[in-house]
Amino acid sequence: MRFLSTSPPVTRAVLTVWCIALIRARAVLSFLAAALHFGNNERMADNAPTTARSRVRAEITEEVLRAARSQLAEAGAAALSMRAITRELGMSSSAIYRYFPSRDALITQLIIDAYNSLGETAEEAEQAVDRRDLKRRFTTIGHAVRDWALRNSHEYMLIYGTPIPGYEAPEDTILPATRVSTLLLTVGIEAGTDPAVTGVGITKMPDVVRADLEETSARFDMGLPAPTLMLGLMSWSLIIGTISQEMFGHFNNVVDDNAAYFDHMLTLTAEQLGL
């Protein structure tokens, strides 16, 4: 993930994301209850008159983002240029800073939008599956992530590809980044995965790894044993790693049918999780 690849130690960042995802998964019911309470007030706010100025601002902001995405496709995130965007849109060189105070702010919004687009896609696909079919829910999430990546290759590379020189992702990117991992953790929690039964070899790990995972579980009040957390991290890493291998061409001349390979990988992973 972009915020992982642009922050210090990757392992710690990955654990942090999964911890946040678990907390969000456990808070789903509370959130839904609150949403019912505040729903009417929210709808009233949505129906409030929108000023002409705010409409224009929203339209220009979206135009800037569209132009930025076009640059991503043509030259990549590292070459993103505020000046080039203003030229394309016919704006003065200073006008764009009314909407995005810096190039990093624009990149951050692109990253957040990409994570939210991916998360929404995975959530919609998973919601269409029978709640009792945990294995299919898990594999559906994986397929939704891969399908989105293939349709939105430049956005995928923005959030899971090479770090952008000089850019450090802020905390604003963390919650959007956990949308998919929250889904996966929710399925795992509902399944009550027991690594002692399903995770062959998972319960045996170096003391330093076990201590690290147990400390993380305790610090975030996760209540998960180290083997369970290990299985979760392995699952997400396998999904993103396999997609990235395909996206960056590392499976060329190795795997001919990437779709079949990915589907089999998901099936094996689901079985190891006991789904």
Q: What characteristics describe this protein?
A:
0% strand; mainly alpha; 275 residues; 14 helices; Tetracycline Repressor, domain 2
Task: Summarize the entry for a quick read.
With 275 residues, this protein is mostly helical.
Q: How would you classify the quaternary structure?
A: single chain
Helix/strand-derived category reads mainly alpha
Helix amount, in percent?
over 70%
The CATH topology corresponds to Tetracycline Repressor, domain 2
Task: List the domain count as a whole number.
Answer: 1
Strand content: under 5%
Structural shape: elongated
Average of per-residue pLDDT values: 80
CATH class category name: Mainly Alpha
Count of extended strands: 0
The CATH H-level homologous superfamily? Tetracycline Repressor, domain 2
Give me the CATH architecture, please. Answer: Orthogonal Bundle
Distance between the termini: 26 Å
**Counting H and I runs of at least 4 residues, what is the number of helices?**
14
Main β-sheet description: none
User: Secondary-structure element sequence?
Assistant: HHHHHHHHHHHHHH
What is Rg?
A: 21 Å
What ranges have pLDDT less than 50 throughout 5 or more consecutive residues? 1-11, 27-48
